[in-house]
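Chapter review: from sequence to fold.
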Amino acid sequence: MAQNLDESDRSPTLWRNRRFMAAWVGQTVSDLGTQVTTLAIPLVAVLTLHASTFQVGMLRALSMLAFLVIALPAGSLVDRWSRRSVMLWCDLLRALVMAGLPVAMVLDLLNMWQLYIAALVIGLASVVFGVAFDSYRVGIVPKDQLAEANARFAVAESVSRFSGPSIGATLVSWVGAVAALAVDALSYLVSFVFLAKWADDLGEQREGRAQPRAPISLRALVREVGAGISFIHSHPVLSRITAYVAVGNLSLYASIAVMLVFMVESLHVNPAMVGFVFAVGEIGGLLAGLLAARVMRRAGSARTLCLAAVCAPVSYIPVLASPENAVWVLALFMLASSARYVTFDIAQYTYRQSMCPPQLLGRMSASIRWVVGSAGAAGSLIGGWLGILLSPRLTLAIAATVLTLGALLLLFSPLRQARDFEDLAEHPDSGRTSKSLA
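The token string follows.
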């Protein structure tokens, strides 16, 4: 992917790259706001409207529905429009929706239907923002700094996941639901300001990707969505990576579905220690984000991807837990598993960004997100069902087996013979992509 970057983009450190910093801060604040929203809205529903467990579950279900509905068409729209403009509109929409909730609370007009609509709209906007951002960030750094940039974004995402829910709960506890929702709305405005003031569309203009905002018909939308799916399917390496990520999400969410029950009921872990175990897991992801770019340079980017897949058997660790060693065994599992997942994600993001034509980035990203998200939803259902039919421990063992066998998809691919992603171009099967798909 050719890039004609000016001198300000070629700084030896990304911290001096103005466009990267604007995107990094904007994404970090936006992601933190999303994590806060994930907990703040259900808390408001429970504390203010005395919502039932079913109503709280509906809030979560609407977010998942938003993902399944909008992910695929979002890729086509992102490829047609300015990605930065899409992100700005998404931030503005989320800020307005979140700001409307505390106003409704002050006027004593808030009801569950408003929260349902807010969860759905924010879910839709967050999915579109994520698809646009995945594509936008490719054009703001040199290709040889993509791995480092992805690592920085992974660190920020890990910190947001770790701190976002606790910040949301703390805000509701300290300043009340009205002020907490107002602060949440402010986070989206901060993201909007950074992207509006310091980011730009130069990355897209350099690549010649920017297209006029022509009207799009349903037939054209379906054709363009199909082009993104066909691109992934036609590429022997990318298709295997996508399949493995889907298997990984299936296994991950099947494990999550039974993990809390396993920890509390089978291992008798108290709530405080449950929080400790999950916190250790986020630390593993944070460390992986800090070290992944260095590992990819020294060991090779393709080898790092394969190594992360080979480490899949760490998922068997919780099967060995007993009430006597539960906290430390589970903490070790969370640390190792999170580090493995984050390392793999950084490597696979770098690969697919570096090999995909600019005009297909949005559709490719959206297609992968949809496949992976659907696999996660299926994993949650399957894991919950197996947990009842068999046992949580056996369900975790089955999920670990599925993940370990899935690693064969990568170990028996052109990746096995390459050190770096650049070496894959020399493999006779790795370059089978159709330019007509664009």
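Two observations follow directly from the output. Confidence is low (pLDDT under 50) at residues 1-8, 205-210, 426-438. DSSP finds 14 helices and no strands in the chain.
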